Amino acid sequence: MNPEPNRVAGESTPLFNDEQLSRDIGHVIQPHQRPPVYTFFFDYNYTPGKDSDSLAVRSLARTWHVIKVTLYSNHVNFLLVMVPIGIVAGAVGWNPTTVFTLNFFAIIPLAAVLSFATEQIAMKLGESMGGLLNATFGNAVELIVSIVALKDGQIEVVQSSMLGSILSNLLLVMGMCFFLGGLCHRGQTGSGTEQGFSATVAQTTCSLMTLSSASLVIPAALYAVMNQNGSDDKFQVALTLSRATAIILLLLYILYLVFQLRTHSNLFDAESQNAAELEAEQPIMGAISSAVVLVVVTVLVAICAEYLVGSIDDIVESANLSKAFIGLILIPIVGNAAEHVTAVVVALRNKMDLAMGVAMGSSIQIALGLTPSLVILGWAINQPMSLHFETFETVAFAVSVLVATYTVQDGKSNYLEGAMLLGLYMIIAIAFYATPSDALHKAGVITG
User: What Cα–Cα distance (Å) separates residue 278 from each residue in 11, 126, 157, 414?
Assistant: First the structure.
């Protein structure tokens, strides 16, 4: 009899696992052998009434089973209690700081549930479509928050949150993977080892990130030259350049998807094999149930995001925090929480190709997909969203891409390189935190 492979707890590990309990006590527990209260509330695999002849009972039992499975899908879901409280706080008009804090913590478990439901659907769709769906909905929270902020005219918050999400994945997530994975697989003292991943894939993704960095540097440089010459058309020129650049970046992102999923999918074979090993189990929710959870959670995220974004101006005034710090550091923590856990878990399992796929893949989608899409969306709704970011943000992004590129170019990683990436992220975070709220307000930002 083949031994069962080792399993490492991840973001989708259930809180109550009857299969593990059965192994621990030495025999299989059947549903009728458990106390009815336990079965109804805590059994991850079975809910009484699912097979009832009564349609009403069967429907209610299956609905409760989906809710139960969703609630127990992640350890951070105890924060779901913040969702109704945060919505009530925003609707009633509590103190802005309280509204921001409650909805900030409410979005964290919603992001985890969104990731869980997406994984369940992805298992049904196959490797390529499933991977694309995971990547798309993995950034759904950032997209929803940014759309709400863009509609509200908070262009600086949108720009900072997009940039912050990229830096969070490039420096924080990848740094944690390199650091913790490197410590876990460091080898013996005096004969240290390094973790390996596909250098070709890393170089391709870093080249795309360098391109996205150039797409921010060029509008900033052009604006600075025109501003020095006293041109009155600098706002409109930067906006026109940004919109044209956004279209080009979107076309390049589509080309990258074709490259990854079709013509050169062999380069990503190691990542795909690691993903298959990680997701060997069958989905525990049907596609329709998962889709319903996806829709409900997306609506809740949109509501919480509305209240969170609406309280930002008051937070900036009362707490003396810059919008750049809120968008660059705080909001990405909310949106990327589930991805952080996934990437670190697979890095600890020495699946570095998959960990790099999570960190770098999400960064590319934001840089070449979401950010240009928001520029075009702003164009459609008459909001002057551009790729002309604040100068310090642009410099921080360019430096981060440069350091990340040098770190991954050899296809190997260790805990020292992880510590370097984490150190750079902390330096950037401290710089934005220490900056007064009005110091980074851009005289050159297009505001209308």
Answer: 12, 14, 36, 22
Residue 82: how many other CB atoms lie within 10 Å: 21
Length of the chain: 448
**149, two tokens:** 């902020």
Q: Residue 196 — φ and ψ, nearest 5°?
A: -120, 155
Would residue 248 count as lying in a domain?
Answer: yes
Strand partners, 187: 192
Q: What is the pLDDT of residues 397-408, one digit of tens each?
A: 999 999 998 898
Please state, as a whole number, how many other Cβ atoms lie within 10 Å of the Cβ of residue 282: 8
In a domain, residue 351? The reply is yes
CATH for 87 = 1.20.1420.30
Examine residue 263 and state whether it is found in any structural domain, yes or no: yes
Residues 295-320 as b/e (b if ≥16 CB within 10 A, e otherwise) read: eebbebbebbbbbbbbbbeebbeeee
Per the CB < 8 A criterion, the answer to whether 346 and 358 are in contact is yes
> Could you tell me the pTM of the whole model?
0.75
pLDDT tens by residue, 348-360: 888 888 788 778 8
Tokens of 108: 């964290």
Ramachandran angles phi, psi of 192, nearest 5°:
-65, 150
Containing domain of residue 210, as a range? 69-444
